[in-house]
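FW: tagging you since you asked about this chain on Friday. Here's the raw sequence from the shared folder, copied in full. Didn't touch anything.
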Amino acid sequence: MTEQPDGDVYQWYQRGLALLADGHPGAAATLLAHAVAAEPASRSLLEALARAQYDVGQYQEAMITFGRVITLNPTDDYAQFGLGLAASRAGALDRAVEHLALAVAMRPDAGHYARALRGVRARRGAIGR
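HL: got it, structure written out here
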């Protein structure tokens, strides 16, 4: 990591979320990585970092970070969903199906979870699985 940014962890988190919202996931990921280094067990920091990593196309890193959220809270449906999407983008379709199915089981009312699961299952079927 580079030089520590100005402010405290909460300010880094707020700026990171603002950067994500403004379409700057690379800058957000850099800033949020500092926050996670300072508070590695913060689920909100980890989730924000994973979202930034996903948005910038760092799918392997996003998988690891969403996995850390799941380790802290296995019933976090959004982290299961995020890990599933990142795994899908990384080409790990079996892992994607596993985590998307868990997200759907936890939140059957979330239509976007079910649509993502159907899409990954269709992709996996199309390649002969």
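FW: The radius of gyration is 15 Å.
HL: agreed, and The chain is about 75% helix and 0% strand.
FW: great, closing this out.
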